[in-house]
Write a structure and sequence with these properties.
By secondary structure, the protein is of the alpha+beta class. It is 37% helix and 19% strand. α2 crosses α6, α2 packs across α8 and α18 packs across α20.
Length: 799
C-alpha cells in the first residue's frame, strides 16, 4: 500500500510539474505575439514620426505629420491587434479557407468563388479615385510592415494552423467591403423562399406569409416633410457553413440610428446615436480608433483590414448608418444551350457566349478543386452552390455589388466632409450596401440621405421572384438617380429615426424594396423621442437599452385569455400576467412568452407548410411575427385548423394547445417555474473563427467566451436575435453602440461587443463584454489632451 501511495505521489508531482511547465509554455506562446505598445520602433516605409497613444480601453489615437503616414500607421496598428481576424476575413471573401482548413470549408469556397467577390473587388480598384488608391496602398503597406517585422511571432492562430500570411493588398480591403455587402443583403433568399411558397401553396399564401410593410407603420422620410418633394410620372414597380461564419441568417441584419436636433436636446446641440446589428464573434467585427494627420481628424469605428473610419465624426460632422434593405438582387432564369456542358445562353432570340471562369481551390491535405463559374449578362449561375438548386432551372444572380462600385471613395469623402453638401457629395459614391445615413454638424443641422445603386426595373418586374432572363422583358433600366433618392434636411419634427423600416410612403415614384424590417424598433424609438423635447445623452442611453416588446404587447392578450388546466399552467400564466413586457435577462415572462410563440407558429403553420418548408420559413421572423400579429385578429382563419385532426380548430384552440406545450417544455428543460428566466434560455457566446468551432473542447474553451445571459429579442431596440429554428440561443444583435454629442466631442460615448485585441489572453481581448452586456459605455476620446490624460501606453513609430 505504501509503495502504491509513493508511486501515486510521484506521478501526481510529475503531473503537477508538467502542468506548470505546459502552462508556462502556453502563456509564453500566447503572450509572445502581443504587440509592442510602448517605446519606439523603427518602421520602414514611413516619411516621418508617428505617435500612437492607446487609452485605457485599448483604443489607439494615431497622430502623424501627413496622411500617408497616418493610414500606414492605422494598417500597422490594425495588424498589431487583429491580424488573424484580417487574415480569416480575406479568406472568407476570396474563397481560400480550404487552403488552411481542408475540405470542411469547400462549400464556402465554392460559393464565394462562384459569386466572385474578389473578382468584383479587383474591378472596383480600377474605378477608384487616385487619392483613394493612395490611401488604400498606404494602409496595406502598414499592414505588411507589421507582418514582415513579426514573421517569427505572429498571433497564435497562425502557429496552430500553420499559416504564413501573404502580403496584404488593397484588393483584400475591398473584398471585405463586398463580404459586408453580402452579409447585409439577402433579398435573393426572399426570392427563392417566395418562389417555393408559391410553388407549394400558391400566391395567396406567399402574400400572407411574406406580407408587405404595414401601411400605418413609421417611415423614415414621410412625404411632404423637410425640404423633400416626391417626383411624379414614373411607374416604379447560402451555404449553412457560411451562415455560421458570418454569424446570422441574412434576414435579421439591421441596426438602429437616429439624430435629434438641438431644438429638442437638453444641451441645445444635436445628438446622433447608432447601434449596428450583426453577427457576433470573438473578436468584434469593429475596431475603435481616432486618426489625426494631413486632411484627417476623425474618431469612430473601423473594420480591421479597411482604412479610415466607417462610422463616427470629424471636427465638424458626425454620421451614422443602418442597413437600408434595398432590393438590389435579382435571380434570372437562363436558357442554356446544353444542360451538361453549356457554352451559350439565349437572350432576345440570340445565343450569347457564356463567360467561363476557371477557379482553382487549394485544399489542405487534398487535391485542388476546379470550379468552372458560368457567367451570363445577368451574373454568375448559382445553382451548384446554393442548396436545393442543383436540379432547378439555371439561375443567374444580378447584384449591384458585382457591377463595379466606388464605396471607398465615399468612405474617404465622409471622413473629410465639413457640411451637408459635402456629406451628400460623398454618399454619391456609396454604391453598395445601401445604408440609411444620418448626419449632424456643429452648426446644428441634421439630415438623412438614402444612398446606393438601386435598380429601376422594367414594368411588370417587382423583383419578388426569379424571372425569365432570355426574353429581355425583365431587365434593369438603370438606377434611381442620386438626387432623386430619399432625403430630408432639418425636418420640422426635430428628429429622424431609422431602424431598417420602410424609407418612404407608396407615393414615392420608385420602388426601393418590398421586404423591410418589421416596424417595432422604429416605432418604439419614435414614440420615446416624440414625447421628449429635452433629450439628454442619458435619455439616448435609456433608449438604446430598451427591451420593451411591442409584439408581445399585441399578442399577450390572446395568451391571457387561456383557462389553465393544471397547476403548472396556472403558474406560467401568472408569470405572463405579471410580466412588464421587458426582455430583461431575469424576466420569467419573456421565457414563457417566447416558448409559447415558438409553439404557436409551429402549431399554426406546420400542417400547411410541412416540416422542411416550415424550417426554411422560421428564420424570417421579420415576416412571420407581424404576420402572426395580424392573423390572430381573425379567430376562425383556416390557417388555425389542424388538417391532421377530424375537428376544425380555431385560434383559441391553437393558443391553448401551444401554451400547454410551452409550459411542459419549460418544465422539462428548465425545471419548476421559479427557475424560469429569459437569460437562462437566451444566452450569448462569442465564438472565435475558426478555432471556436473546432470540436476540440479545450481549444473551444480557450478561444471562445463563456455563454452569458442575453437580454432583448429580435424586435426590441436592444436587439438580441432569437434563432427561431433552433431556439433560443442568441445568434447576433447589437455589435456596438455610439452616442455622439455633436460639438462637444469629448462627451460622446461608445462601446462594442468584445474588446480591441484579438490576441489570446490579452487584457483588452474581452474587457468590453461586461459593459456591452450591461449597456455601459466608455468615452469616445477625440481631443489630444483627453487621449493623453487617459493614456495606457504610448508608442513612437519612426522611419
Amino acid at each position: 500500500m505504501r509503495t502504491i501511495r509513493r508511486i501515486l505521489t510521484i506521478v501526481g508531482l510529475v503531473i503537477v510539474v508538467l502542468v506548470v511547465i505546459l502552462s508556462g509554455v502556453g502563456a509564453w506562446l500566447a503572450r509572445r505575439p502581443w504587440p509592442e505598445v510602448k517605446g519606439k520602433l523603427a518602421i520602414s516605409g514611413l516619411n516621418g514620426p508617428v505617435e500612437v497613444i492607446r487609452d485605457k480601453w485599448g483604443v489607439p489615437h494615431i497622430y502623424a505629420q501627413d496622411e500617408h503616414d497616418l493610414v500606414f500607421a492605422q494598417g500597422y496598428v490594425h495588424a498589431q491587434d487583429r491580424l488573424w481576424q484580417m487574415e480569416f476575413n480575406r479568406r472568407i471573401g476570396s474563397g481560400t479557407l480550404s487552403a488552411i482548413l481542408g475540405d470542411s470549408t469547400l462549400d464556402v469556397d465554392r460559393f464565394m468563388r462562384t459569386l466572385g467577390l474578389r473578382r468584383a473587388a479587383e474591378r472596383d480598384w480600377t474605378l477608384l479615385e487616385e487619392d483613394v488608391r493612395l490611401v488604400m496602398q498606404a494602409y496595406a503597406d502598414g499592414v505588411n510592415a507589421y507582418v514582415d517585422s513579426h514573421r517569427g511571432r505572429l498571433p497564435l492562430e497562425f502557429t496552430i494552423l500553420g499559416v504564413d500570411p501573404a502580403p496584404w493588398t488593397p484588393i483584400d480591403s475591398l473584398t471585405w467591403g463586398k463580404v459586408m455587402a453580402f452579409d447585409l443583403g439577402g433579398n435573393y433568399h426572399y426570392e427563392l423562399l417566395r418562389a417555393r411558397i408559391i410553388a407549394e401553396l400558391g400566391a395567396e399564401a406567399a402574400q400572407m406569409l411574406l406580407p408587405p410593410y404595414d401601411s400605418g407603420a413609421p417611415v423614415i422620410v414621410p412625404a411632404g416633410t423637410g425640404n423633400y418633394t416626391w417626383l411624379k410620372g414614373i411607374d416604379g414597380a447560402t451555404p449553412s457553413a457560411l451562415t455560421a461564419l458570418l454569424g446570422h441568417s441574412g434576414s435579421d441584419a439591421g441596426s438602429n440610428n437616429w439624430v435629434v436636433s438641438g431644438s429638442r436636446t437638453a444641451s441645445g446641440r444635436p445628438l446622433i446615436a447608432d447601434d449596428m446589428h450583426l453577427g457576433l464573434n470573438m473578436p468584434s467585427v469593429w475596431y475603435e480608433n481616432s486618426l489625426h494627420g494631413g486632411r484627417l481628424d476623425v474618431a469612430g469605428y473601423s473594420f480591421p483590414g479597411v482604412p479610415l473610419v466607417i462610422v463616427g465624426h470629424n471636427d465638424r460632422v458626425a454620421w451614422a448608418v443602418t442597413n437600408l434593405p434595398a432590393d438590389v438582387q435579382d435571380f434570372y432564369i437562363e436558357n442554356l444551350d446544353n444542360a451538361d456542358d453549356p457554352k451559350a445562353y439565349e437572350f432576345q432570340g440570340r445565343w450569347e457566349e457564356l463567360t467561363i471562369i476557371h477557379e482553382t481551390i487549394e485544399v489542405k491535405g487534398g487535391q485542388p478543386v476546379v470550379v468552372d463559374v458560368k457567367v451570363t449578362r445577368h451574373g454568375p449561375v448559382m445553382n451548384d452552390v446554393i442548396g436545393g438548386l442543383a436540379d432547378a432551372e439555371p439561375l443567374a444572380l444580378r447584384w449591384t455589388a458585382l457591377d463595379g462600385t466606388r464605396l471607398m471613395n465615399a468612405v474617404l469623402g465622409l471622413n473629410l466632409a465639413a457640411n451637408w453638401e459635402e456629406f451628400r457629395q460623398a454618399l454619391q459614391f456609396w454604391d453598395v450596401p445601401s445604408q440609411n445615413s444620418m448626419f449632424a454638424d456643429v452648426d446644428g443641422n441634421i439630415g438623412y440621405q438614402s444612398p446606393g445603386l438601386i435598380p429601376i426595373r422594367a414594368a411588370g418586374h417587382q423583383g419578388l421572384v426569379p424571372v425569365p432572363g432570355w426574353t429581355g422583358e425583365f431587365e434593369w433600366m438603370g438606377y434611381i438617380p442620386f438626387d432623386e433618392l430619399p432625403r430630408t434636411y432639418n425636418p420640422e419634427s426635430g428628429f429622424i429615426v431609422s431602424a431598417n423600416n420602410k424609407v418612404v410612403e407608396d407615393t414615392y415614384p420608385y420602388s426601393l424594396a418590398y421586404e423591410w424590417s418589421a416596424p417595432y424598433r422604429s416605432q418604439r424609438i419614435t414614440d420615446l423621442l416624440a414625447t421628449n423635447v429635452s433629450v439628454s445623452i442619458e435619455d439616448v442611453r435609456t433608449i438604446q437599452s430598451q427591451t420593451y416588446s411591442l409584439p408581445a404587447e399585441a399578442l399577450r392578450p390572446y395568451l391571457q385569455a387561456v383557462q389553465p388546466a393544471t397547476g403548472l399552467e396556472a403558474a406560467a400564466l401568472d408569470i405572463v400576467n405579471r410580466w412588464d413586457l421587458l426582455y430583461e435577462a431575469d424576466r420569467a415572462g419573456g421565457a414563457v412568452f417566447q416558448a409559447w410563440y415558438w409553439f404557436l407558429v409551429r402549431e399554426t403553420l406546420g400542417d400547411e407548410l410541412g416540416a422542411d418548408l416550415l424550417d426554411a420559413y422560421l428564420p424570417y421572423d421579420t415576416s412571420h411575427v407581424p404576420m402572426m400579429v395580424d392573423l390572430m385578429k381573425r379567430p376562425t382563419s383556416p390557417w388555425f385548423d389542424d388538417t391532421g385532426t377530424a375537428q376544425v380548430e380555431e385560434r383559441d384552440d391553437i393558443v391553448r394547445r401551444s401554451f400547454s406545450e410551452a409550459a411542459a417544455w419549460l418544465e422539462e428543460t428548465m425545471g419548476k417555474p421559479g427557475k424560469w428566466e429569459w437569460g437562462k434560455m437566451h444566452t450569448m457566446a462569442f465564438v472565435h473563427q475558426p478555432l471556436g468551432q473546432s470540436g476540440i473542447k479545450i481549444i473551444e474553451w480557450l478561444f471562445n467566451s463563456q455563454a452569458i445571459p442575453a437580454r432583448g429579442d429580435n424586435f426590441t431596440v436592444d436587439a438580441a436575435w432569437v434563432n427561431y429554428a433552433y431556439p433560443f440561443a442568441m445568434s447576433g444583435g447589437v455589435s456596438q453602440r455610439l452616442i455622439v454629442d455633436v460639438g462637444d466631442w469629448g462627451a460622446s460615448l461608445s462601446i462594442h461587443s468584445t474588446g480591441q485585441s484579438g490576441q489570446l489572453f490579452h487584457p483588452h481581448r474581452a474587457d468590453m463584454v461586461h459593459a456591452w452586456q450591461e449597456i455601459e459605455y466608455h468615452p469616445l476620446l477625440f481631443g489630444r489632451e483627453d487621449a493623453e490624460e487617459n493614456a495606457e501606453a504610448t508608442l513612437m513609430l519612426a522611419p
